[in-house]
Amino acid sequence: MNVSDFDYDLPESYIAQTPLEPRDSSKLMLLGRQSGSIEHRTFRDIGSEINPGDVLVLNNTRVIPARLKAIKAETGGVIEILLLRQLDDTTWRVLVGGKRVGPDTRIAFPDSDITAQVIEALDGPERVIRFSQPVNQLLEDLGEMPLPPYIHNRLEDAERYQTIYSREKGSAAAPTAGLHFTGDLLISLRDKGVQIAYCTLHIGLDTFQPVREDAVEDHQIHSERALLTSENAHIINEAKLAGGRIIAVGTTAARTLETAAILSAGGDPAKPLVAPDFCPWRPVIAFEQDTRLFIYPGYRWRAVDALITNFHLPRSTLLMMISSFAGRENVLHAYEQAKQHHYRFFSFGDAMFIR
Predict the structure, then answer these.
(1) How far, in whole angstroms, is CA 183 from its chain's centroid?
(2) First-to-last C-alpha distance (Å) of the chain
(3) Which fold has domain 3-63+158-354?
(4) How many CB atoms within 10 Å of residue 88?
(5) pLDDT of residue 274
């Protein structure tokens, strides 16, 4: 399967630079998963498409202010550090912007007595660094919100890059499908009889990277930490057994749920196409571990019945995932329709409900 099959043309003017107010005023495209049918709504009207007994699964991760300005202690050269993942109390996997930042490079942070040292060079600009002490307070004082590289406008309110239900700190990016929900909208859904369940998946910035290989199968998917508690697994399974739909809010929630379903069958999420115990639906189980699940056309969906998502970058793993869910031709046709109807794309853009 060629990566070029998931390419499309998107002029820069379609990329949303600022979030809409209020959150639920964004456009909403309804895409028929089987038929390819398309309808246009406003996100606040999504309640008319969700039934009593359905369960919304939300990713409650919270973005940390992970972008840090720093200097090389020996030379004073300016560098930028983007925290990707915490490995222990003081050790992080990071991206480093700057020249000649190799192993043993010592790093200082202006206006702080905390220092760091590079202990390992990984691929490209990735490094492993160890801070002189835990950096939670440093992030609160000096860190900046790590907006995706295609957003060039300054974000006045950092909370607009957080979902209203964000709780668990650890992401380098927001689960953007959830940015459209307001408190009033969630309350109205609950009052209607829609159940709410939560998972946690801490998102890395690899999410935004286009796939560089020519063949989809050659791509090495990034690893992300995911968690589903037994309480939330119970809510999801009971709703499904009672006839409700499992609606994932965002590709990160979908990735978590599908990982949990594969694990429940004794499978390996790193090899999701090999599942001798496959059945049309798998219950989900509680788990906490890294997931390397790569979903692309040919994948056999086990847990998710419907998906709320934004519009994704060309040649990205996220576009491949929703193409697996709704069919590549349907998805690319929907994207062309979105451009014709002036939808806003990517993190601060509009939404799609695939049902």
Answers:
(1) 21
(2) 25
(3) QueA-like (3.40.1780)
(4) 8
(5) 42
